[in-house]
Design a protein that fits this description.
530 residues; alpha/beta; six-stranded parallel beta sheet; 22 helices; 16 strands; globular
C-alpha cells in the first residue's frame, strides 16, 4: 500500500547523485557498474566464479544460525550459473535500523524475481563484522506514544577492534530491563524473551544478528555471510594482494574518480585520503588503516613505525584474516569473490560507489548492476486512518512537518495572521521603489528589513497555529503520535527505529507484510501496514 505519486527524489528525500541516477543522468560516474532502470531486471551472463568452498562454509554457518534453507541455498550458490543478489549492512544491536531488514527482504525479492524469469538466483546478505564503529552498532531506538526512547551499550571498551570479534557484554541485560515496560503484553514479553536467547552477554554481535535475521525471515532469509568468515578471507586474499601490488595505480584511479564526481557537481561521500590504502590491517587488537610510505613501506594510521610492504604481502599469503577492505574496496572485492549480478544499496552507499567504481576498473573485476534499495515506512491501519481523519497527506507530513502542524492549527481557527502578513508585506513593497530612487544602496537594507519582518511574522504564525491546535487536544495528540511514528526525532523512521524490536508490537505479520507490500521501485516510498 503506497502513497500514490509519492516520488522520493521529487520530494527531496534522496541525496543528489541517486536522484540524478534515477532521472537517467550521471550514470557514467558509476562506470563500469550499471545503474538498473526502475522496473527492469538485470541481464547479462553471470561471471565465472568458483564459489564451491565458500558455499560449503556458508551452508555450515547458516545451518548454525538456524536458517531452514541453508543447505539448498548454498548448493545453488555453488553452481557458477547461479546469479547472486547482494545486500549488506553492519550487524547493529537487535538487528540495527529498520532499513537493514528492508535490505534483506529486497535482496530476496530480487533473487526470487530472477528465478521466476528462469534464471536461478540466490540472495546474500553481507554482515559487515569487520567494522569497528562501536557507536554505530550499539544503539537502538523505539517509539512509545509520541516519545522516542534511545538505548545503547555504553562506552567503547575496545576501540578499533572489529565488532565481529566482540561480545555484547553485561550491558545488554540492562537494556532488556528497560525495554520491558515499553513493550507490555504477552506478545511483547514473548518476543523480548526470544531476543534474549540470542542477545546474551557472551554472544558475539554477528552471531546474534544472524540468528535474529534467520528467525525473522525464515526460509526466505538470504544466505548470511560474515565478513570475518575464514573461507571468505581466503577468497579475498588474491584481490587484496593485487591492491597492494598495484597501489600506485589504485591511488591514481581513486583520485581521478574523486575529481570526476566533484566536476559533475556532486559531493564526495568519502573524503580524499592521500597515501591511504583502501585496506585495513588487524594488529594487536586494533584494525587500522594502511598508509603507503616511500621506498616500498607502509605504516598503520595512529601507530608508530613503518614496515616493508613485503610484510603485508606475507600476512595476506599466510593469514588473510588480518587484512580487510575499506569502504572503497569492499564492493569490488565482494563482487570479485561472489560473481555478483545485482547489488542492492542504500542512497549513501550508491553515492560513494561513484568513487569506489575505480577499483573495478583497475583490477578488471566484472561489474554488476546496481539498484537503490526500497524505502519503507511502517504505518498501522489505525495510524493511516488518523492521517486521513486529520486531512493530511503522508508526503506533507514527511517533507514539511512544521507546515503540516501549522495547517492543522489554521483549520482550528488560527488563520488570522496570514491576511495581515500579506497586507504588511504589500505595504513594505510600496517602500522599495521610492527608497531605491533616492539611493540605490538602500536596496540591500530594504531587502534585509523586508525578509526580517516576513520571517518574524512566519514565526508568529507558527506559534499562533500551535496555540490554536492545542485547543483541539485530541487532534493535536494524534498528530504528535503520527509525527513521532513517521519522523522519530525528526529522522526517517527506517533510519532510526530498530527493526528487531518491532515484532514485539506487530508479531509475525510484520515480515509477511514486508515481503508482500514492499515495492522494489526505488522511486516510491513503500508504506507497510502489518
Amino acid at each position: 500500500m503506497n502513497d500514490p505519486g509519492f516520488d522520493l527524489a521529487a520530494a527531496g528525500l534522496l541525496p543528489p547523485l541517486p536522484t540524478a541516477l534515477l532521472a537517467g543522468r550521471a550514470g557514467e560516474l558509476l562506470a563500469p557498474l550499471r545503474f538498473l532502470p526502475a522496473g527492469e531486471l538485470p541481464g547479462g551472463t553471470p561471471p565465472a566464479v568458483d564459489r564451491r568452498a565458500l558455499a560449503a562454509a556458508l551452508a555450515t554457518a547458516n545451518a548454525a544460525y538456524g536458517h531452514p534453507e541453508a543447505a539448498a541455498l548454498a548448493a545453488r550458490l555453488a553452481d557458477p550459473a547461479t546469479r547472486v543478489v547482494v545486500a549488506g549492512q553492519q550487524v547493529g544491536l537487535f538487528g540495527g535500523p529498520l532499513y537493514t531488514l528492508v535490505k534483506a527482504v529486497a535482496a530476496t525479492r530480487w533473487a526470487e524475481a530472477l528465478t521466476a524469469r528462469g534464471e536461478p538466483a540466490v540472495a546474500i546478505f553481507w554482515m559487515a563484522t569487520e567494522d569497528h564503529d562501536w557507536q554505530e552498532v550499539t544503539r537502538a531506538a523505539l517509539t512509545a506514544g509520541d516519545e522516542v526512547h534511545h538505548f545503547d551499550l555504553g562506552p567503547d571498551p575496545a576501540p578499533l577492534l572489529p565488532v565481529g570479534l566482540r561480545t555484547l557484554g553485561e550491558g545488554v541485560e540492562r537494556l532488556f530491563a528497560a525495554l520491558g515496560p515499553l513493550l507490555p503484553g504477552e506478545r511483547g514479553a514473548a518476543w523480548l524473551a526470544e531476543l534474549a536467547r540470542w542477545y546474551r552477554p557472551g554472544a558475539r554481535f554477528g552471531e546474534a544478528f544472524a540468528r535474529l535475521l534467520a528467525r525473522l525471515l525464515g526460509p526466505r532469509c538470504p544466505l548470511l555471510l560474515d565478513a570475518l568468515l575464514p573461507e571468505l578471507k581466503a577468497a579475498e586474499a588474491p584481490w587484496q594482494a593485487a591492491l597492494v601490488a598495484r597501489r600506485d595505480e589504485v591511488a591514481a584511479a581513486l583520485a581521478a574518480a574523486d575529481r570526476a564526481v566533484e566536476a559533475a557537481g556532486f559531493p564526495l561521500q568519502v573524503a580524499p585520503q592521500p597515501d591511504a590504502a583502501p585496506l585495513f590491517l588487524l594488529r594487536d587488537g586494533a584494525r587500522r588503516r594502511i598508509e603507503w610510505r616511500p621506498g616500498g613501506r607502509f605504516a598503520l594510521r595512529g601507530a608508530s613505525g613503518e614496515h616493508p610492504v613485503a610484510e603485508l604481502e606475507e600476512a595476506l599469503a599466510g593469514n588473510p584474516t588480518v587484512v580487510g577492505p575499506g569502504v572503497l574496496a569492499r564492493p569490488a572485492i565482494q563482487d570479485a569473490v561472489l560473481g555478483t549480478t545485482l547489488q542492492v544499496m542504500g542512497p549513501g552507499e550508491v553515492a560513494y560507489l561513484a568513487q569506489a567504481s575505480a577499483v573495478y576498473r583497475v583490477l578488471g573485476i566484472p561489474a554488476p548492476w546496481v539498484t537503490l534499495r526500497p524505502q519503507a515506512l511502517l504505518l498501522e491501519a489505525r495510524q493511516r486512518q488518523h492521517l486521513a481523519d486529520l486531512g493530511l497527506s503522508l508526503a506533507r507530513l514527511l517533507t514539511d512537518p512544521e507546515g503540516a502542524a501549522r495547517e492543522l492549527g489554521e483549520r482550528a481557527g488560527g488563520d488570522f495572521v496570514a491576511p495581515v502578513r500579506e497586507a504588511v508585506l504589500a505595504a513594505l513593497a510600496a517602500l522599495r521603489d521610492p527608497a531605491v530612487a533616492l539611493d540605490a544602496q538602500l536596496e540591500r537594507p530594504f531587502a534585509k528589513t523586508r525578509d526580517g519582518i516576513a520571517h518574524s511574522l512566519e514565526l508568529f504564525a507558527t506559534r499562533v497555529a500551535a496555540a490554536a491546535a492545542r485547543r483541539d487536544e485530541g487532534r493535536a495528540r494524534r498528530f504528535a503520535q503520527l509525527r513521532a511514528a513517521c519522523l522519530p526525532d525528526g529522522h526517517p523512521q527506517e533510519r532510526l527505529l530498530t527493526g528487531g524490536l518491532l515484532p514485539a508490537r506487530h508479531g509475525e505479520e510484520l515480515v509477511a507484510a514486508l515481503f508482500a507490500q514492499l515495492d522494489l521501485d526505488p522511486r516510491r516510498l513503500s508504506v507497510i501496514t502489518p
